[in-house]
UniProtKB/TrEMBL annotation:
Biased composition (Basic residues): 20-38, 1046-1057
CC annotations in GO: chromatin; chromosome, centromeric region; cohesin complex; nucleus
Stated name of the protein: Cohesin subunit SA
InterPro entries cross-referenced by the UniProt entry: ARM-type_fold (IPR016024), Cohesin_Scc3/SA (IPR039662), HEAT_SCC3-SA (IPR056396), SCD (IPR020839), STAG (IPR013721)
Biased composition (Basic and acidic residues): 1093-1103
UniProt subcellular location: Nucleus; Chromosome; Chromosome, Centromere
Compositional bias segments (type: Polar residues): 1074-1092
Chain's role: Component of cohesin complex, a complex required for the cohesion of sister chromatids after DNA replication. The cohesin complex apparently forms a large proteinaceous ring within which sister chromatids can be trapped. At anaphase, the complex is cleaved and dissociates from chromatin, allowing sister chromatids to segregate.
Alphabetically ordered keywords of this record: Cell cycle, Cell division, Chromosome, Chromosome partition, Coiled coil, Nucleus
Family (UniProt): Belongs to the SCC3 family.
Domain SCD: 267-352
Record organism: Sparus aurata (Gilthead sea bream)
Amino acid sequence: TDAVGLSMSMSEMEDPEVKGKKKRGRPGKQASNKKPRKSPMDKAVGVARGRGKANGVAQHNGDGGDPVTLFEVVKLGKSAMQSVVDEWIESYKQDRDLALLDLINFFIQCSGCRNALHQIYSMFFHQQDSGDYPLTMPGPMWKKFRYNFCEFISVLIRQCQYSIIYDEYMMDTVISLLTGLSDSQVRAFRHTSTLAAMKLMTALVNVALNLSIHQDNTQRQYEAERNKIAGKRANEKLELLLQKRKELQENQDEIENMMNSIFKGIFVHRYRDAIAEIRAICIEEIGVWMKMYSDAFLNDSYLKYVGWTLHDRQGEVRLKCLKALQNLYTNRELFPKLELFTNRFKDRIVSMTLDKEYDVAVEAIRLVTLILQGSEDALSNEDCENVYHLVYSAHRPVAVAAGEFLHRKLFSRHDPQAEEALAKRRGRSSPNGNLIRMLVLFFLESELHEHAAYLVDSLWESSQELLKDWECMAELLLEEPVQGEEVLSDRQESALIELMVCTIRQAAEAHPPVGRGTGKRVLTAKERKTQIDDKNKLTEHFIMALPMLLSKYQADSEKVANLLQIPQFFDLDVYSAGRMEKHLDALLKQIRLVVEKHIEMDVLEACSKTYSILCSEEYTIMNRVDIARSQLIDEMTDRFTHSVEELLQEAEEADDDDIYNVLSTLKRLTAFHNAHDLTRWDLFGNCYRLLKAGIEQGSMPEQIAVQALQCSHYSILWQLVKITEGAPSKDDLVALRRVVKSFLAVCQQCLSNVNTPVKEQAFMLLCDLLMIFSHQLVSGGREGLQPLVFNPDSTLQNELLNFVLDHVFIDQDDESQSMEGDEEDEANKIEALHKRRNLLAAFCKLIIYDIVDMPAAADIFKHYMKYYNDYGDIIKETLSKTRQTDKIQCAKTLILSLQQLFNELLQDQGPNLDRTSSHVSGIKELARRFALTFGLDQIKTREAVATLHKDGIEFAFKYQNPRGPEFPPINLAFLEVLSEFSSKLIRQDKKTVHSYLEKFMSESMSERREDVWLPLISYRNSLLTGGDEDHMSVTSGSSSKTGSVRSKKGRPPIHKKRIEEESSVEGSWMLRNDTLQTPGALQTPQLTSTVLRENRPAEHMPDPDSEPGSENDFVHKRGLMEDDAEPIFEDVMMSSRGQLEDMNEEFEDTMVIDLPPSRNRRERAELRPDFFDSAAMIEDESGFSMPMF
C-alpha cells in the first residue's frame, strides 16, 4: 500500500545500514565515511524541536507569539527567498538531521497537514483526503504562496549546487520523500509533491546545463594547454584541469542520477494522473526542460509524452502541451530535432484548431502558424485549408489567430521589388495590388460572401496596413485595363467593393462586427487617436474617389448599394474645412442619377440614408444637401401625381407602362419617406386613392398596393411625430384620427385581398398601428393624445386571429401549394418561416399588451406542441407575459385552449373517444407542458390553478349524455386531461376542488367502475392521493401520485413519474440519491498508486476504439478519495513490462542523457522510448494492466 511505500521511504532516511546499501554515489565511495544517522526515536525528538524553529533557528512572530516554521516564513513571503535559503543552509551545516527534518516538515505542511510529520501516517493508513490545501486555496495570499513555494525550491538547489546536493544525503532524502508522497491516493500529497518534484527537476536541469557548459570550457582549456609546445606546457595546470574535468563529470553523473530518479519515479506516473492540474504541471515543466537543455531533453524519447498528452480530455492540459510546443517551435534552430515529432503529431495539432475549448483552439492555430514559419513544406494544402475557414469563426480570438496564419501563408511571400516595379509601371501609389487581388480571390473561393466583415475583422490585427490601403483598392477599381494584364472580373469587382466597405467600417467604428465580441468597449487614448486619423484619411480619399466610383458602376445595383454606405463613415466637416464643396456637388449629382436609374429597394434605401446623413443639422453642408433633396422630391412627387391620375383614369385599360410609372415612383418615394419627413408633399392622399380604387375595382397590382400601404403608414407616423413633439391643436388631433381611422379600415378590407403579399402587409401594418395608437399612447403625461387612442372591436380582433390561423399555422404542404407550386429551396423555406414568425409575433404583442382580449390567445396556445419547433419560443414567451399580466385570466385561457382541442376531437371522432389514441395523448401532453409552466411556487399560482380546475370541471359536466343519466357526460373524458394539473394544487385546495367536483356527481357516478368512467375515477384519485403528505411546500413539482420526493427514511421513491423539464433540479437530486452507495463499497477503493501491484488488475480501462474526448471518455470510474477528480484521458502509457520489452526489440533507445536506475530508490519499470507508437500501448495481450486513476 501507499503507507508501506512511505514507511520504506522513511526507513531509508532513518536506517544508516539501509542507506549504506542503497546509496547513490560515485564509485569508490565508502558508506563508513558518512556521518552516523540518528535513530528514529532521536529523529522524533528532532521533529518536536524542529517545530519551534524556522531554518533551524528559533523565530517568533512580531507580537511575541509562537515561533514560526519554515512553511510560515515562505507563506508570509516577507523575507527575501535567498536569505531564507541561506539560513537553512547554515543550519544544515550545523545539524543536517534537524535542518532536513525541518525541510521535510515544510513539504508536509505545504500539503495541508497542520500537525506536521506525524499526521502523514494517519492520512496514509486511513486514506483521508485533506480537503483544501495551500495549492488549491483561493485568494491572493495563497497564489503568492504557490509562487514562493516554487521559488524556494529553485533557490534552494541553486544555492546548494556546488556542495550540499552532492553529499548523498539531502537530495536522497528529499527525492525519496517526494516520490513516496507522489504515490499517495491523497490528492493534497500527490499534488504538492509533484509540483515540488517538477520544480526540483527544473532546478537540477539548470544545474546540469551549467555543468555541461563548465565541462566544455574545461575541455577546451585542457586541449589548448596540451597542444602547446613542450617548453610552454604547464603540467601542473594540465593535472588541475584533468582533475576538474573528472570532478565535473562525477557531478554530472550524480545530477543525472537525481534527474533519473525524479523522471522515472514521479514524472512518468504523474503526467497521466487523474487530476488535470497535476498532469498540467508535468507537461509544463517538461516543456521547460526541453527548451532549457535541448541537447539532453529535446528528442523523441521526451517529446512523445507531450504528443500523447495532446489527446488529454481536459482543456487546461491540452493548453499546456500547446504552449510548451510553442516555446520550442519559436526557435528555428530546434526545427531539425522536431522533425519526427512534427510528422507524427501534425495531424493532431491541426485537428485541435477545432477544439471545443476556444483557448486551446487559439493556441493550436498559433502553433500551426509557428510550424508554417519554420517550414512551409511541413503543412499540406489540406492542413492549411482546415485553418483558413476559421477566419469566419464567430469567436474573435480564434478568428484573429486564423487571420495571422492566413497573413503568413498568403501575404508574406510576395517580392517587394517586383511589386514596386509593377506599381510604378501602372502609375499606382501602392505596391499592394497583387496582395489585394489575392485577398479577393480567397474571399470568393471561400464562398461565404455575406461574411466579408468577419474576414476583414480576422485580418485586421495582422494585415492592417494592407486593409487600410484604400488608395490601391480604388485604383484597382478605377484603372483602365492594360493589354497583357489580367483585369478584375465583374464578380471580383463586387467582392473588392464589399471588402473595401467593410475595411472602412472597421476603421471608422473601431470595433468588431455584430456577432463578434461582447459589445462596444471603451477605446484607449491611442486607439481613439488611430480611429480619428483613419477616419480623416478615408474621408479625404473617398470624398474625391466616391463620385468617380459611383459614376463607373451606377448601372450595377449591387455595387452601388455597397458604395453608398461609405458616406456614413465620413467626417463631414472635411467638406467645408477643406473647401471641397465641388466634390459634394459631384456626389449629390451621382446619387440623383442612381435614384433615377434604380427601383431596387436596397439601392433606394441606401440613397435615402445617405441623404439623411448629409442633411444632419450639425454640419454646414446641410443647406446645400437639403436643396438638392427637395428638388429631387419635388420632381418625383409631380411625376407620381401625374402617373396616378393617368392610372386611375384608364382604370382597367391601363397598360404596363402606366403601372410601371406609378410603381417606380412610388417605390422611390416610399424609400425616402422612411428616413425623411415628406408630409408637406401630402403623399397619403394619392396612396389612399390608389388603395380605395384597388378595393373597389379589385384590379390594383399587388406591388402598387403593398407600396401604397407602406407609404401611407410612414405618412401617419411622421404626422404623429409632429404632434407628439409640439403642442397640437384639437383640429390636428381630429384630422390625424380621421386619417388613422380611414387607413385602418382600408387595411382591414385588405385582409380579404386575393394577393397574399397585400394581406400580409396589411396585417403587419394593422398590428403596428394598433400597438402605436393603443392606450399606452397617453402614458407618460400625454393625456392630451387620448383622441388618438384606438381599441379594436371584436370584429377586427376576430379577423386578425383568423388571419394568423390561416397564414401562420399551416403545414409545409399547404405552404408549397400557396406558393403556386413553385419548388422552394432551403433558403426560401427559411425566409418563409421567418415571415410567418414575424406575423405571429406581431399578433402576440397585441395580446401581451392587452390590446386584443386574452381569450384570443387560446387559439395560439393550442398549437404549442404541434408547431413547437417553429413557434415554440414565441408562444412560450407570450404565455409567460400574459401570466405576469393576469394569472387567473391566463389560466382560464389555457384551459380554454385545451377545451377547444377536446371539442375538435369530439367533432372528428364522436362521443365515443378512444382514450388511447395519439390525439388524446397529444392533448394530455399539452396539458402536462402547460402544468410545467406554473413553476414550483404553488402559493403564487394557487388561485389561478384552482380557477383552472373549476372551469375544467364545469366543462366536463356541461352536457349530459342524451342517452340518459346512467351514461357518462359527453365531456367527461376531459377530466383525464385536467388531472395533469392536480399536482399543482396544494393540500387544502385539493380538498376544495374535490368537494366542488362532488357537487356535479350523482351518487351513482361515484359507484361506477366501467371503463367509460375511468377519467372521473382517475381525476378523483389525483385529488385524493398525496393530500395528507402535502405540507404547502413551495417547491413541489412532482405528481401527487408520486408522493414526496424522498420518504422519511431517506430512500428514493420506488416508482417515479416522468421527469419534468422545469423540475430538473429536483430530478437531478433524485438521480443522485439513486446512485448512493453503501459504506461497504469503501472496503475496495480504486487503486491510484503508480507502483506495479501484483494480482490487482485494473477495474476499468477505457475503450481503445473510442475517440479521445468522446462521451466514453467521461464515464471512467473515479477514485473514492477524489470526488472532484477527472480520470485520465487515455491509458496509452499504462503498459505492462512485457509490452515495453516487445517494443524495445523493435525500436532503439535514443535517450541523449543515459539515466541509469538509481540504487537507493524502489525498483520501477524501466522507461523505454517507443517513437510515439501510442496505439501499441493501448491493449495488453498478456492481460496485465496497471490501475488508472
